[in-house]
What we know:
Layout (H helix, E strand, L loop, with lengths): L7 E6 L5 H10 L12 E3 L5 E6 L4 H7 L4 E5 H10 L5 E6 L5 E8 L14 E4 L2 H11 L4 E4 L15 E6 L3 H5 L2 E10 L1 E6 L5 H21 L1
Parallel strand pairs: 1-3, 1-4, 7-8, 7-9
Antiparallel strand pairs: 2-3, 4-11, 5-11, 6-9, 6-10
This protein binds adenosine-5'-triphosphate and zinc ion (ZN).
The site of adenosine-5'-triphosphate (ATP) has 16 residues, from helix 3.
Amino acid sequence: MLVDADRLHIAIQKNGRLSDTSRELLKDAGLRLQNGRNALTARVENFPADIMFVRDDDIPTFVADGVCEFGIVGGNVLEEFRLSSGEPAVEVVAPLGTARCSLKLAAPEASAWEGPQSLEGQRIATSYPRIVARWLEEQGVTATVVKMNGAVELAPRLRIAPFICDLVSTGATLEANGLKAVADVYDSEAVLIRTTRPISDAARAQGEALLSRIQGVLTTKD
Ligand code: ATP
Ligand code: ZN
């Protein structure tokens, strides 16, 4: 893609739980995308913006680096990124109310749970080690956090850790793996983020226009 300083670059998830609602939001805001599902980027036909389809984990980095002026990402991924990078150049401009889920701590179904102190000296597997570490600190508990990039719910069976902290919307996956949710660690929803790096005047103006269109869509959905 040509890097055009006067066009906006918007990062959304290529494939996953955020993809459909992200595309829908842009569409409802009146943006018509040129390419289909499998492209890495799409030009917007009727607005000076290009869409970049990426892994959700890369979205905060792209926006903080200013490679993309806007992005849509889960609050959980953004929070983990923030805790890992000090003060990244990114701000939340709108909570979107979609992709709601909770990062929950789960214990073996058969175990006695007597509150966070039951975690003292234990191991906890998660894809969000910094959010979990902060929560443990708030609870005044010392435990070992083991980072896994996926299939966290298998950690107990693989004897990696008896406890896990994972995203849950219904609890069915936990149950299927002999686990029970015992504490809410972080409540998440999708958020629209914007870079706080300096951008061209033209891009800034387009960004304001985009934001007011999106806010219009969100208001009618409330
Ligand atoms: P990628 O391939 O882009 O890295 P991924 O597998 O990491 O994708 P998804 O499973 O698509 O990510 O989840 C993306 C985001 O959707 C999560 O970070 C979270 O904000 C939200 N999410 C995850 N699980 C649920 C759920 N069960 N219900 C609702 N939203 C969820
Ligand atoms: Zn991901």
